[in-house]
Amino acid sequence: MAEHAAVVAELICPTAAVTVPLSDSRGAVVAATITAPTRLPRFDNSAVDGFAITGADRVRAVSDHRDLELVGQINAGAGENQALTAGSALRIMTGAPVPDGVDAVVAQEYVARDGDRICVAGDISAGLNIRVAGEEVRDGDVIARRGTLMTAGLVGLCAALGVTAVEVHAPLRVAVLSTGTELVEATPGASRREPGPGEVFASNAIMLTHAIAGCGATVVHTAMVSDDPQEFLAAMTRASALADVVITSGGIGFGDRDVVKSTLRSRGVDMCTVNMRPGRPQGAGRFGGAAVVTLPGNPMAALASFEAFVRPSLRAAMEYTGDERRTVHAQLGHSIQPRPGTVQFVLGLVTLTPPRSVPVVELAVGRRGLSAVIDTNCFAFLDADRSRLAAGDLVVVTAEGGVPG
Ligand SMILES: Nc1nc2c(c(=O)[nH]1)N[C@H]1C(S)=C(S)[C@@H](COP(=O)(O)OP(=O)(O)OC[C@H]3O[C@@H](n4cnc5c(N)ncnc54)[C@H](O)[C@@H]3O)O[C@H]1N2
Ligand code: MOO
């Protein structure tokens, strides 16, 4: 299994750096240092709604209360500069520019106001509640280095600095080809066709598309083809021209009509079996200019194979590290007997119930179809060299939506 993972990782080349609009950079990885084109804040501004006072009045307020006349008001967005002299104060709002002559802003809750007069008293420090221009970021400061994930916060900081585009590792372009004469795509509306005798609704393409998008890659093409070799070859030619990576599902088993295996085996794609269940048959290679990973058709086998081989390689190629999922150590709720010599992919339900500090997982061993997703929230790859796992043993699980209590 590790050998095949290395083969797939080697096949999928790191993506080039591309400049994308900031709005399209979510979850991507920074490929070139981002520096600040300006400072932040851009100008001295007030951190509170309150009153701006001069240094002379601030100093005098320490020993005596100061009665000051309100001579104006500055709102956020105000462009004009209202100079301030001793004995006067300005009403000022959060985010409004602090004018010349102002030494501190006193928050309104600490000020007694009577019409156009206010009274300030006590020890007010110089610069109180003034956000000084450039105190957060100076012009030319490094905002993010290579390898940093474009998180919501970083996107926000870039926007605050007026950055409109960033250089990131390009999303991989992926095509998904599902094979099987028995497949029928469920569509809404008038074009809907129910499966006839021997036919089934197709599930792998949409499932894999979802998983690929979750890795930060872009699905540029999907197609569903029959087990006819000519049709499959044409579909491969088209898919490999459009994508960096082509993922196929089905047709790599041991039957008489395994179209992917029979067609690609002689065309640069190696077929093999790995010590994983489900997901024993696998294949990988190149076709046209694209990397090709052939996944087995059984939906759970396709899912297991994606998690074992495809996801880590896609993410590594884009240096993508963002993931809503969490990998945790959880204690087995019950003992199980894994299949010796085989890595088992199994879904489970992981929970963390206080006062426990370690999550507990119930593994749905024996549920090999996609229905295993019902009432489960995580998956695990069980070690091939464990012949028995006792209740309380630790297993590594990956939880899709965090670990609920
Ligand atoms: N004699 C043996 N037969 C099989 C073995 C074996 O060791 N000896 N291994 C089995 C295993 S394990 C797997 S996995 C499959 C792999 O076969 P294929 O990759 O060729 O998959 P298909 O035959 O095309 O499909 C298998 C199964 O999955 C359904 N399927 C396929 N694609 C889709 C799709 N897009 N959406 C929904 N369902 C799909 C298909 O209808 C079949 O039921 O070989 C076993 N055989
Ligand atoms: O190994 Mo198959 O891939 O079990 O379903």
TrEMBL record:
**Could you tell me which InterPro entries the record lists for this protein?**
MoaB/Mog-like_dom_sf (IPR036425), MoaB/Mog_dom (IPR001453), MoeA-like (IPR038987), MoeA_C_domain_IV_sf (IPR036688), MoeA_linker/N (IPR005110), MoeA_linker/N_sf (IPR036135)
Establish whether keyword Magnesium is in the entry: yes
Instruction: Specify one Pfam family.
Output: MoeA_N
GO: which molecular function terms? metal ion binding; molybdopterin molybdotransferase activity
Q: What is its EC number?
A: 2.10.1.1
Its annotated pathway reads: Cofactor biosynthesis; molybdopterin biosynthesis
**Which terms under GO biological process does the entry name?**
Mo-molybdopterin cofactor biosynthetic process
Which key words tag this protein in UniProt? Magnesium, Metal-binding, Molybdenum, Molybdenum cofactor biosynthesis, Transferase
CDD domains the record matches: MoeA
Q: Where is the MoaB/Mog domain?
A: 175-316
- What are the record's GO terms for cellular component? cytosol
Q: Which co-factor is required? A: Mg(2+)
Q: Which reaction does it catalyse?
A: adenylyl-molybdopterin + molybdate = Mo-molybdopterin + AMP + H(+)
Q: Which function does this protein serve?
A: Catalyzes the insertion of molybdate into adenylated molybdopterin with the concomitant release of AMP.
Q: Please give the family membership noted in the entry.
A: Belongs to the MoeA family.
What is the protein's name according to its record? Molybdopterin molybdenumtransferase
